[in-house]
Hints:
The protein has 314 residues and is mainly alpha-helical.
Amino acid sequence: MPKTTINIKQVLIRNNIFIIFVMLIVACAFMSDAFLDPMNLRNILLQQAGPMLVALGMLFVIQAGGIDLSVGSLMAVGATTAAALMSVGVNVWLAVGAALLTGLAFGVISGAMVAFGKVQGFVATLAVMTIARGTSYLITNGRPIQIEQNLNVLASPQMGYPLIWITAIVVIACLFVQRFTGYGRKVIGIGSNETALRLAGVRTKGFVLSTYVLSGVFAAGAGVFLASRTSTASAGMGMGSELDAIAAVVIGGASLAGGRGFVMNTVVGVLILGLISNIMNLMGVPSYPQDIIKGVIIAAAVLLQVATGRKNTR
């Protein structure tokens, strides 16, 4: 039998995001004694539950060659819709369902404009972003809504922090869809060569539409997650979340041109951004310098991914 040789260099290149993640954990542990405290690690997972949902939705859109700038505004729509309904006595789970349906509706609008209206994803979701943010202000009348019902059960220690478990289930489901279903393969195929798939008889428009719907539902759910942790919903929630989601997806090795991207890499990308913010908070770094440091680190990580991606294709 022929011997199989393992190219250590290629293995390291393919798994560089996981190596960076482990090295970052070790560095954080040395920089702060409080970092490895179970309470701090749990807080990181709770804080990143929402961003992880947003990033996973963004991943599928980017895999299909699109972009979704509306996710931050859809977080606000999801949170304010649920809060407004609960404030008038609607059952908490019905309110959450309505929030998810609202995210779905906006996702349909974005996806329909892209898939059937031939509008660029950037332009379509920019329009939806503005409409959704305005809708949030209309719902709240510009004032935060205090959530009086027991939505914070999602972040309750007595219930075992359902936010974390729900997010884990979503990650597993997305991983299964990407790796073991025709849907996952077709989404990536659309980003690689949509024309070839269309000529092969695949109705690509429906798949493109579905990625924006998925992103809208995930973003609205992320807004509900955030509201459950803060017991408040406001129209200003989620601002800038679309940029963090795109950064996490790209750090995870996805291509903004479409056709490439991995669920677990995106999860690690989200956690890397969360670790960076967490260690800077533990070290008392002021908020404004944090943005500069975070931006530099993101740029370095993305350049590393681009460099190793080129080497991996040679």
